Amino acid sequence: MSEPVADDVVISIRDLHKSFGSNEVLRGIDLDVVRGEVVCIIGPSGSGKSTLLRCVNLLEVPSGGTVTVDGTEITDPDCEIDDARRTMGMVFQQFNLFTNLDVLGNLTIAPRRVLRRNRAHAEEIARANLARVGLSEKESSFPGQLSGGQQQRVAIARALTMEPTVMLFDEPTSALDPELVGDVLDVMRSLAEEGMTMLVVTHEIQFAREVADRVLFIDGGVIVEQGRPEAVITDPQQERTRNFLARVLHPGQKTA
Amino acid sequence: MALTRRQRTRLGRGAQYAIAVAVALLLALTADWPTIARAFFDVGVAASLFPDVILIALRNTLLFTALGFVVALALGLVLALMRLSSVRVYRLAAGAYIEFFRGLPALLVFIAIGFGVPLAFGTILDRLVSITLALGIVGSAYIAETIRAGIQSVPRGQVEAARSLGMSPTRTMIFIVIPQAFRIVLPPLTNELILLTKDSSLAFLLGTTLEQQELAQFGRAALNQARSLTPILVVGLCYLIITIPLSYLARRLERKYGSAGMPKGAEV
Predict the structure, then answer these.
(1) Residues of B with CB under 8 A from a CB of A
(2) InterPro entries from the entry (chain B) (predicted)?
């Protein structure tokens, strides 16, 4: 694999800090994600991994440091954040489908109101993305009529209709019943295979091992360890990483 | 001989019914029925009220209420958004307005608009404009708080999802938050409409000619002429014709959308 050239870097994070009151959640994160890379972020709850992801599209405003996405420094106060966010698709733990709109409405509202696509064009793209997540027949359902797994796949399709250069996933399977997790992971896997740049906060270690180009272990607001998944997951170098993986991979067993 | 739980319940219920029947009987036996019938159920007087009670009085009540409600809704929405604004001055101004007009009797607001505005600005407002304005102001203070609560009950994730798609705060408010908030506040808004229907009776403060009369004023005028209480009955029924369907509607909406503002059958 050749060394990435500078303009291949899609997300560039420098010395990122975030505090909630006196609680410092992120304590200096540096991270570069190159085009087409799939980075999975793992770590114990409260480690700051979701906050890190939410800082990337400024749903949380960092207390310090810079975030640059696709050449735009979004932490610049003069940055047109709404424009910058269009290049990033976000998928939430709780799906957050718009409950006042049906599935097609969820997929067309932003393209129509933000990108000014006309209705027919927006619906054409929406239907193509619904087919991509395997839910073409659900276009006139309301979110409440879908299972959690279906809702999350619609949420992924919704993010894709904006044709983002990066997809951010915030624990996309954590709110799902176990038997519904697979469908969502399948959609994410095929996205990764198509070459989408992805930043994924997840507890699915197996998924990270299979799909990620790089795994980041975060604890206490810093990146403790990172590298190829087989290295970080199979042969962790840090004590904290080993403990975490032991707890996640073998729940119920005593750890050293 | 101890009574079982079921027997005790039955005995208690029986006692309650007995008391209710006794009170009803007492009222029925002591009331002067022939006088009541003459006063309230004078068919001739009732007939003489038609068609004006419908064509003028009911029509005016509906007109005043509808116009007042539209103004109240628009003003209430603006006030609610100001209350939730990140701009402190807007929050304070809206808060002061709401506390002020919610604390005053509607009667005072009508007098202030009807007599205060001409004094202060040297212009006499059209009567319909004055009534619409007064009802709008009275209603808006309550409606603002209702809408604010509705907007705040829309889950944060909905806003985050919209913003993450690149929608501006304004677009998010218009296309996502307000539509959901309105589903949540439809039942309480219907109740505000009922209250406003009754408040429209205060229009009597701002004009007296026949064509201007709404239900309550029409009833009082007829009362003086007919020397019978029948107009009260007729006019009262007219109010109920408006308000009972509205409360039925409010209950229907409440059942349909539930407290979470979601269509029935929705799961979270």
Answers:
(1) 155, 157-158, 160-168, 171, 175-176, 179-180, 183, 261-263, 265-268
(2) AA_ABC_transptr_permease_3TM, ArtM/GltK/GlnP/TcyL/YhdX-like, MetI-like, MetI-like_sf
- pTM beyond 0.95: the answer is no
Q: Is residue B88 part of a domain?
A: yes
Q: What range defines the domain where residue B169 resides?
A: 40-257
Within a domain: B263: no
B219: in domain: yes
Long-range contacts of B227-230 (CB under 8 A, 24+ apart): B228/B38, B228/B39, B228/B40, B228/B42, B228/B45, B229/B39, B229/B40, B230/B39, B230/B40, B230/B41, B230/B42, B230/B45, B230/B46, B230/B49
| CA-based nearest distance B93→chain A, Å | 28
Instruction: Give chain B's domain count.
Output: 1
Rounded to a whole number of angstroms, the distance from the CA of B226 to the nearest CA of chain A is 54
Q: Name chain B contacts of A162, Cβ cutoff 8 Å.
A: 165-166
> What chain B residue is nearest to A167 in terms of C-alpha separation?
B164
Residue B75 forms part of a structural domain: yes
Q: What is the full per-residue pLDDT of chain A (256 aa) written as tens digits? A: 444 455 589 999 999 999 999 999 999 999 999 999 999 999 998 899 999 999 999 999 999 999 999 989 999 999 999 999 999 999 999 999 999 999 999 999 999 999 999 999 999 999 999 999 999 999 999 999 999 999 999 999 999 999 999 999 999 999 999 999 999 999 999 999 999 999 999 999 999 999 999 999 999 999 999 999 999 999 999 999 999 998 888 887 765 4
